[in-house]
Design a protein that fits this description.
It comes from Streptomyces finlayi. By secondary structure, the chain is α/β, with parallel strands linked by helices. The chain is built from nine helices and nine strands. It has one domain. The strands form two sheets. It has a seven-stranded mixed sheet with strand order 1-9-6-2-5-3-4, with helices on both faces. It has a two-stranded antiparallel ribbon with strand order 7-8. The chain is globular.
Length: 252
């Protein structure tokens, strides 16, 4: 009697497939029913051509990246590839889901190849500094890295500022546990709630900021990139402040 032999990796693929469906279903439920995400200004995202979306980063466990991806995937006609920390790809099921959703690992060129192919790229220029800040400093943006601005000039891509309000209250960062960070290999291990709190989320997309023509000299390019970066950060901060004032409370 012939016994079929499972192909190597088939169990892992099945686990990843089940996990992928469960995680995507969870993100959809969180965005629609739990956080009741409201979006505005999505029409500001160009329908074609290269574009970079830059958003503020917040909340102890950086849930905002997955929620932003879910909202864009659901409501935007074109795909957006979101750049994430390499930590996301250390967890098999999360990594599989991320790749299928177009999330890609931190790239020194900030997705230049994708932009050159006319794609849209999303990122969080604050990096870990954004999610690591204490709750008392919530929604105070940390300095944006200029990498996206350098890439925007090289690709001729406009920059769309994105404001995310709600993530700080969903996972408020109250402290850190150093030994757990060392044990898990994470940059930091936050003290926060076990499950996310049902905060009200507002995600806004601002008008595109055109990338300047790339100067010839290095010094001029560096200065132009810094100006573009600062303008994007200032715009996102204004949008965040505006949207915070729109909520009657963090949970309504």
């Amino acid at each position: 009697m012939h016994h079929s032999v499972s192909e190597p990796g088939s169990v892992q693929e099945w686990v990843e497939d089940v996990g992928d469906k469960a995680l995507r279903g969870l993100m959809a439920w969180l965005s629609e029913a739990y956080f009741r995400v409201e979006t505005s200004g999505m029409e500001n995202i160009p329908q074609s051509g290269p574009v970079i979306l830059v958003a503020n980063h917040s909340g102890a466990w950086a849930l905002d990246g997955f929620i932003l991806n879910e909202v864009l995937d659901r409501d935007l006609p074109r795909p957006v590839d979101i750049m994430a920390s390499s930590l996301v790809f250390k967890f098999p099921v999360v990594a599989s889901t991320a790749r299928k959703a177009g999330i890609f690992e931190n790239d020194p060129t900030v997705g230049l190849d994708r932009l050159a192919a006319g794609r849209a790229v999303g990122l969080f220029p604050e990096g870990f500094a954004g999610v690591r800040k204490p709750f008392r400093q919530r929604y105070r943006l940390r300095t944006f890295s200029t990498g996206f601005a350098v890439t925007a000039m090289r690709a001729g891509a406009p920059v769309v500022p994105v404001s995310i309000v709600g993530a700080e209250e969903a996972y408020p960062k109250l402290g850190e546990v150093d030994f757990l960070a060392q044990l898990t290999g994470l940059p930091y291990f936050p003290v926060t709630t076990l499950l996310p709190l049902p905060s009200k989320w507002l995600i806004s997309f601002g008008e595109p900021i055109p990338a300047p023509v790339r100067p010839d000299s290095f010094a001029e390019r560096a200065a132009a990139a810094r100006l573009l970066c600062d303008e994007a950060q200032a715009t996102v901060q204004k949008m965040v402040d505006r949207d915070r004032a729109r909520r009657t409370s963090p949970f309504h």
